Amino acid sequence: MIRPTNPEAHHARNRVPQRTDMQRYEGKVALITAAARGIGAAVARRVSVEGGSVVITDLQQDELDGLAAELGDRVLARRTDVTKRDEIEAAVAAAVEQFGRLDLLVNNAGAGIVSTAPEDTTDEEWHSQLDVTLVGAARCIQAALPYLVETRGSVVTVGSVNGIAAFGNIEYSAAKAGQIAMMVNYAVRYGNVGVRFNVVAPGTIRTPYWDHHPDTLAEFEKMYPLGRIGEPEDIAAAVAFLGSADAAWITGHTLPVEGGVLAGPALLDLRVDTGGLR
Question: Where are the stretches annotated Disordered (predicted)?
Answer without folding.
Answer: 1-20
